[in-house]
Each structure stands twice: as structure tokens, then as C-alpha cells.
């Protein structure tokens, strides 16, 4: 395995962290108040005893941001892992379903599915991944019976001991996963600093857009879902969940 050039990694992160911040803003720019109201749980907001319109919209935006931010950053970490592997072991993005990365090291062909954190997917997602690992392994063995294939479930952050996952793959978490890709014990801490590249500048831009939408949506919310400044929860729930229409009366059948 080639020695990793940390300056190259820093340059990659500095360049691509910009894309993360841009992608964080995009979901907000595409939203409208009514789209958000249809997606989120109005009963949860009512249980929080929200009485101020701007607080309602703030909670609505924060819920939208948090649900997309983890996925967006998870994609960034996946691409970073593939980039690092490309520099150390000629790793490449896999075309196999469910597999993100493939690379060879020490006569072992690693097939890697990359997850952001340890709490990923439901039981169906995990069963599907186990099947994807087995299928990818079978396909590789068909083309080269002597190939030593090692499935890896690689998780970017967390503190879990290395173990076998679903009797199918080796589960590597946090430091252990980044070490697999680089043979650098400190890589998991080395990459944290460049992630802050121009963070204040990007976050200021993001907050500017968020505050603009906060003001616009609050104005619209006061107009359409408040009565004289008081939140009309019944109207919100009706807009979010009202869909019951009485069935049309059936036509009487003609006797033969």
C-alpha cells in the first residue's frame, strides 16, 4: 500500500467541502412552506407547545435541515474514503449493487460498503446489504475462482470493536476503517482539521439563506394558518392530513 500524502487529502477536502455546503443550501432553496407542512408531523409540533409563528417555522426548517444534512455529509465521507483508497491502493468506485469501493491489498480483494455512522438502515436494509455482499462475492469468484474476496462494512465514525457482521462481512468502525484504507493510525484525526476549511464563511452564507426563508415562511404562515396572530392547529392538521372523501354511492345493478 502506498503512503498517503496528507497534503493531497487536505487539498481534496478543502475543494470538496464547498460542495457539501452548497448541497446543504439546495434543499432549502427548493422548498415552499406548504411542501414542508405536508412532510412534517404536526402533532409533534403541537406537543412542543409552540405558540409563536416564527418558532414554528424555525422548528420546521431545522427538522428539514437535520434530516438531509446527515445524508449529504455521509455522501461526502463516502467519496473521501474512495479518494483515499485510490491514492493508497488504486481503489475504485464499485459498480456492484450495494458496494461502494473495491481495492486490492496483500492479495485480498476488498469489497466495501461505506456507511456514515453505526446507526444505519432498518432490518430490511441490512438484510439487503448482506445479500448484495454475497452476490458481489459470487460474481467475482466466477471470474476468478482463486480470488480471495473480503467483504467489509466500513463505518466512518463511532467506537465499536471490529467484528463479523451477519456472518458475511468484517465490520470496521471509526479509526479501524480509516486505517484499513491508509495504514495510517492517525488518519481519523488528521482529516478533522481540513473539514473546517472556510466553515464560518460557508455557514454564514447558509444562515443568510435560512433566515431569508424563515422571514418569508413566517409571513405566509401568519397569513394562511393563524387567526389574528394565534396558530390555528386544526387548520394545519387539516392541510397536512385531511384526505377522507365519502365513497360515491354505487349504482344499482339492473336485474337480468
Word description of this protein:
This protein has 256 residues and is α/β, with parallel strands linked by helices. The chain has one domain (18-241). Helix content is 56%, strand content 13%. It is built from nine helices and eight strands. The protein has a six-stranded mixed beta sheet, with helices on both faces. The chain has a two-stranded antiparallel sheet with strand order 7-8. A hairpin with a 2-residue loop joins strand 2 and strand 3. Helix 1 (6-29) packs parallel to helix 8 and helix 4 runs antiparallel to helix 8 (199-225). The longest helix is centred in the N-terminal third of the chain and has 37 residues, at 53-89. The chain is flat, with a radius of gyration of 25 Å. The chain starts with 5 loop residues before the first helix and ends in a 15-residue tail after the last helix. The mean pLDDT is 89.
Q: Which descriptors would you attach to this protein?
A:
8 strands; 256 residues; 9 helices
Mean pLDDT across all residues, rounded? 89
What order do the SSEs take from the amino end to the carboxyl end, as H and E?
Answer: HHHHEEEHEEEHHHEEH
Radius of gyration: 25 Å
Uncertain residue segments: none
Given helix and strand content, the structural type is alpha/beta
| Total individual domains | 1
Amino acid at each position: 500500500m502506498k503512503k498517503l500524502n496528507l497534503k493531497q487529502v487536505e487539498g481534496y477536502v478543502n475543494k470538496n467541502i464547498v460542495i457539501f455546503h452548497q448541497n446543504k443550501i439546495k434543499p432549502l432553496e427548493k422548498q415552499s412552506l406548504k411542501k414542508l407542512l405536508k412532510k412534517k408531523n404536526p402533532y409533534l409540533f403541537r406537543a412542543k407547545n409552540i405558540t409563536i409563528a416564527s418558532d414554528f417555522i424555525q422548528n420546521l426548517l431545522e427538522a428539514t435541515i437535520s434530516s438531509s444534512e446527515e445524508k449529504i455529509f455521509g455522501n461526502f465521507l463516502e467519496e473521501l474514503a474512495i479518494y483515499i483508497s485510490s491514492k493508497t491502493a488504486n481503489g475504485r468506485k464499485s459498480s456492484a449493487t450495494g458496494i461502494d469501493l473495491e481495492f486490492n491489498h496483500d492479495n485480498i480483494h476488498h469489497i466495501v460498503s461505506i456507511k456514515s455512522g453505526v446507526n444505519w438502515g432498518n432490518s430490511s436494509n441490512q438484510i439487503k446489504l448482506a445479500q448484495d455482499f454475497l452476490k458481489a462475492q459470487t460474481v467475482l469468484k466466477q471470474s476468478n475462482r482463486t480470488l480471495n474476496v473480503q467483504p467489509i462494512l466500513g463505518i466512518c465514525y463511532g467506537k465499536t470493536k471490529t467484528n463479523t457482521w451477519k456472518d458475511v462481512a468484517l465490520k470496521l468502525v471509526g479509526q479501524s476503517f480509516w486505517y484499513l484504507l491508509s495504514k495510517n493510525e492517525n488518519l481519523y484525526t488528521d482529516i478533522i482539521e481540513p473539514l473546517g476549511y472556510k466553515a464560518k464563511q460557508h455557514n454564514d452564507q447558509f444562515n443568510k439563506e435560512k433566515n431569508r426563508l424563515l422571514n418569508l415562511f413566517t409571513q405566509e404562515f401568519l397569513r394562511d394558518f393563524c387567526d389574528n396572530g394565534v396558530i390555528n392547529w386544526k387548520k394545519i392538521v387539516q392541510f397536512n392530513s385531511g384526505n377522507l372523501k365519502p365513497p360515491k354511492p354505487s349504482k344499482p345493478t339492473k336485474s337480468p
